[in-house]
Amino acid sequence: MSEPLESLLKQVEARAEELVGLASRLIRFQTPAPPARNTAEAQSFIASFLEEKGFAIDRWDVYPGDPNVVGVLRGQDPARYKSLIINGHVDVAEVSQGEAWDTDPFDPFVKDGSLVGRGAADMKGGLAGALFAVQLLHEAGIRLPGDVLFQSVIGEEVGEAGTLQCCKRGYSADFAVVVDTSDLHIQGQGGVITGWVTVKSKETYHDATRRNMIHAGGGLHGASAIEKMMKIIQGLQELERHWAVTKSYPGFAPGTNTINPAVIEGGRHAAFIADECRLWITVHFYPNETYEGVAREIEDWLGRVSQADPWLKDNPPQFRWGGASMIEDRGEIFPSLQVDPQHEAVRLLGGAHESVLLEPAIVDVSPTVTDGGWFSDAGIPAAIYGPGNLRNAHSVNERVSVEQLVRFTQVMLKFIYEWSHTLK
Ligand SMILES: [Zn+2]
């Protein structure tokens, strides 16, 4: 290892308290989502932090009060050397009334070797570690040859995909690390898409017509949208089972690809036959599948279920897939992410991990979803790699081990340095 890098890695350990201070500073900004629209101050802090380290800042409102920040540190020779995106979300999981925290969740403290506070694991610890790595490189006067982009994004906890907005704005790189909760595993992920399935009758009938609709000789060709939705739900259960039997992906328990009927709404009043019923579903799929693909499969399947029904065939279900926010339009998409263990950056990150932790890096899949999928969706190779474990994310007394935070920062420092020195 080169001399300056070696001494920087030692500095991370020596200055662990400063690192914990930075993480605590981030946790003190109260950025839970929901309610969201509360990240402007935290983003200003991160923007000036990056600006002081030589980054050019781009900041824009994704929603009022929720700006994205992208810092770009131009390399010395970006045409020849690899570029890197470091990505993290600044919003944290909500804190509900009456949760039994040992203390104020936004007033972090260290207990038994762990930093405790909302967002410690998911993911202000990861953000702080990556920022601290950048700080040490800057202080040492190291000029990196490749570009480094730091994306501090909003909205991850409520499917608002600040990361998607970065991709849409044109930010790209040779590799992206999402420093979200992964317990220092290098991870890909399955995906999630939500959807609304609506059964709607062309006519509206009085409750008193039910006899004519369902009994012999009634003669009225109508239906309750609620009862027809039962058929749709059964169809989804059959498809879910079919998927569980026929599809699999290494690292996931069989049947992880579920279709959850999460919310149902329908009918107008007890004096009517229900003329509309809406079902909100959550679909989990594997890393080698796309959200467009699974949505098509469901539409196709329910299309055939409907063809076999005398009323549904003329009144087929309608679909609305995804959405840009769970708060604004009740829908979200998290694309899946496949990690290629042989990708140059993944091998380099794994090597950095091994040299710091003295054990091989584990490459596997996250049991949850992160913004990592948006990079894959945009054609940017990516992986999730961050401190903290999911048991301690979103939880009461959320925590991250200080030791792991230090190791993470060392690995990131080494990885940023080495990837930036890799020829294109
Ligand atoms: Zn997260």
TrEMBL record:
From the UniProt record, list the coiled-coil ranges. none
The protein's required cofactor(s) are namely: Co(2+); Zn(2+)
Query: Which EC numbers characterise this protein's activity in its record?
Result: 3.5.1.-
At the top level of its lineage, which domain of life is listed?
Bacteria
Q: Which GO terms describe its molecular function?
A: hydrolase activity
Keyword vocabulary terms for this entry: Cobalt, Hydrolase, Metal-binding, Zinc
In this protein, which residues make up the domain named Peptidase M20 dimerisation? 212-305
Q: Output the Gene3D superfamilies linked to this UniProt entry.
A: 3.30.70.360, Zn peptidases
Catalytic class of the enzyme: hydrolase
Q: Could you say which protein family the record assigns here?
A: Belongs to the peptidase M20A family.
* Name of protein: N-formyl-4-amino-5-aminomethyl-2-methylpyrimidine deformylase
